[in-house]
Amino acid sequence: MKFTKNIVIFFALMVVFSSCGDGWKNYISTEVDVEMGKSAQNQYDAIYANQILDEKENKELYNSINLIKERILKSGNVTHADDFKWDLKIINDTVLNAFCLPGGKIYVYTGLINYLDNEAQLAGVIGHEIAHADKRHSIDNMAKEMGLAALISLVFGDGSSLINIAQNLLGLKFSRDNEAQADEYSVNYLYNTVYDASEANGFFEKLEKDNQTQEVSEFLSTHPAPENRKQVMLEHWLKLGGKKGKKFEENYSRIKSLLPKNTEKSW
Ligand SMILES: [Zn+2]
Question: Which of 129, 179, 184, 199 is catalytic?
């Protein structure tokens, strides 16, 4: 990535930025997301080196989960479907979660796959994570944490300092607005696929019922409460027209049977 120093542009942008909320999106190239994502991906791949399922050894499992990702990317609602290289890796751990790094690097825990009841529910969570990357929420986060001036000066600096700072900021929680937008787009994406978009909130529905387990409590301590989110997503689905789609329950049982045996938990 080539960063150009241009003090005139910098001050011109300062004026633009001070007058519009997320106007930075028009000026900070998606290359920044891609570079940040690559750098973070290297770190996460090292952290989870012993837990990331090998793609060759788990071909059928990866094909099934990647198909969900591909269907969402082809929904026509993902702005950066072609700009990012959307990788997906499966981490063998009982954690009930998934995450996506800037530039489209998705990680899904086997615990989450095992916990859900159908493919549409998993598509809902993957859609939510894709939305975080597609709406560039990490950059939004950085702009808010550091202030726009500092962020822009980094982008127009030599690049290396941006990557370093990005590493520290990637661990930050997304704002409630970011989470709400990711929820909304998860429904939008699924609505334009074969999946039942009313199931996009299925994860939250299950969490609400099961809030006594330790893994669920951990999730709830770092994310906004599911109840309200579940309802908002359902209302959004109704607003879109309430069209029903497929849940692929049987196929999902097959997907779960492909998980490593140590993933199983007594929920
Ligand atoms: Zn989220």
Answer: 129
How far, CA to CA in Å, does 211 sit from each of 93, 128, 172, 217, 221? 19, 21, 24, 6, 11
Please give the share of the chain, as a percent, with pLDDT higher than 70: 83
Task: Determine contact, residues 205/256, Cβ cutoff 8 Å.
Answer: no
pLDDT band (50, 70, 90) for residue 159: low
Distance, in Å, from the CA atom of 187 to the CA atom of 240, rounded to the nearest integer, reads: 9
Q: Do the Cβ atoms of 247 and 118 come closer than 8 Å? A: yes
143 CA to centre of ligand 1 in angstroms:
18
Q: Are 192 and 76 in contact (CB under 8 A)?
A: yes
Q: How far is the CA of 128 from the centre of ligand 1 (A)?
A: 6
What number of other Cβ atoms are within 10 A of residue 209's Cβ? Answer: 11
Active site residue 129: yes
Q: Which three-class secondary structure state does DSSP give residue 52? A: strand
Report the alpha-carbon distance of residue 11 to residue 6 in Å, rounded. Answer: 9
State the distance from the centre of ligand 1 to the C-alpha of 182, rounded, in angstroms: 6
Confidence label for 173 from pLDDT (cuts 50, 70 and 90): confident
Model pLDDT, residue 185: 98
State which H helix or E strand residue 161 sits in: helix 160-169
The environment of the single-atom ion ligand 1, i.e. residues with CB closer than 5 A, is 179, 182
CA separation for the pair 114, 105 (Å, rounded):
21
Query: What are the extents of the domains in the chain?
Result: 30-260
Does residue 11 have a pLDDT over 90? no
Mean pLDDT along residues 114-123: 97
Per DSSP (E only), the strands in 15-165 are 87-91, 98-101, 105-109
Model pLDDT, residue 181: 96
